[in-house]
Design goal:
Length: about 325
């Protein structure tokens, strides 16, 4: 059935039933006064710092229906938003979904989209409490996520607190999401294990919520999630903190499967590829050591914050400058 046959209100009813029958987000639901169905959602707030973030996913700009399943799209759209809450060191609580769909969209596609979204929401205790539905020539998914710090005196992680001498550090491995995009667009053939790893990295990224909270607990003050690309996102930290950075490219943790399948190009993918949704943060040597001890994912120092505002230098093992082909993703910039 097409969404035009079901209509806006029929579709909202169907989605609301799906959402309300999912068991996730108990703690958030307990504080909920009104969820889907009224003019606005309402809940009892608590005594902490509140966080809000919104991100849009537009067909043929952010995603292609030829490359991703609807379920993967739902997962990824929410994951990108949850990653922003992770980068603040927060707890995601509520999400609102604004959905624009062409009339000919299959209802089954929309329920698959919500299946992916609900699956991820359940894993992080997020309650879907509302949204908007309209028709449009292209698919657009805009998600707002609301969250908070774990308790009243927990600090938030900002982009503006980096200090000279601090270590530049990343969680996990980089490059797999960009490699996955390239694999799908260029129809590259790899073995099953590599194919699954790259596809999952690109279409089902796992937001570093637990790690973000851990950073805040261990006294880290500065972080960003890697959505545009390592160097591009590091630039945001440097600009807002009025510092520079020196990165030793050989220390960058490139995903081993990317190394094995993309060889010489893998470092470039890790430095400028984007959409890995790992956390990039800065901290003193002691703070970073504490994070390493407590984290259950790899935590790698890749360089240092320096005093020279705005200047990011990339060097190889011998200390020679390393030249990057392309910095990272930015809308409105011709390339
Ligand atoms: P209004 O006309 O006041 O904007 P709507 O008819 O758009 O109300 O929405 C009715 C209810 O359904 C609201 O509670 C809204 O939050 C929820 N809703 C609408 N679309 C979606 C969606 N795509 N996903 C989740 N909830 C939705
Ligand atoms: Mg509405």
């Amino acid at each position: 059935m097409k969404v035009s046959e079901l209509g806006e209100f029929g579709l909202i009813d169907l989605l609301a039933k799906m959402i309300n029958s999912s068991p996730g987000g108990q703690a958030s639901r307990q504080q909920l006064i009104i969820g889907i169905g009224d003019d606005a959602a309402a809940w009892h707030g608590d005594d902490s710092t509140q966080l809000a973030t919104v991100d849009s996913f537009i067909q043929d700009v952010h995603f292609s229906l030829a490359l991703a399943s609807w379920e993967e799209l739902g997962w990824k759209a929410l994951a990108a938003n949850l990653s922003d809450i992770a980068a603040m060191g927060g707890v995601p609580r509520y999400a609102l979904v604004s959905l624009a769909l062409p009339d000919h969209t299959e209802v089954e596609s929309v329920t698959a989209l919500y299946k992916g979204m609900i699956e991820l929401a359940e894993q992080f205790g997020v309650a879907l409490v509302g949204g908007d539905t309209c028709s449009a020539p292209l698919v657009a998914i805009t998600i707002t996520v609301l969250g908070n710090t774990k308790n009243r005196d927990k600090n938030i992680l900002t982009r503006s607190g980096a200090k000279p001498g601090e270590k530049v550090t990343v969680t996990g491995y980089l490059g797999a999401a960009a490699a996955g995009l390239e694999m799908l667009t260029e129809k590259l053939q790899f073995g099953a294990e590599v194919t699954n790893c790259l596809r999952k990295a690109f279409l089902r990224p796992y937001p570093r919520i637990a790690e973000g909270q851990l950073l805040a607990e261990q006294g880290v003050m500065t972080a960003i999630d890697i959505s545009d690309g390592l160097v591009s996102d590091l630039r945001h930290i440097c600009e807002l903190s009025r510092v520079g950075a020196r990165i030793e490219v050989d220390r960058v943790p490139v995903e081993p499967m990317v190394k094995a399948s993309f060889g010489d190009r893998s470092l470039e993918l890790a430095l400028s590829g984007g959409e890995d949704y790992e956390l990039l943060f800065t901290g003193s040597t002691e703070t970073v050591e504490k994070v390493k001890m407590a984290a259950s994912c790899p935590v790698t120092v890749i360089g240092e914050i320096v005093g020279e505002a705005g200047k990011i230098t990339l060097v190889d093992r011998q200390g020679n400058p390393f030249h990057l082909q392309k910095a990272g993703w930015e809308h409105f910039i011709a390339r």
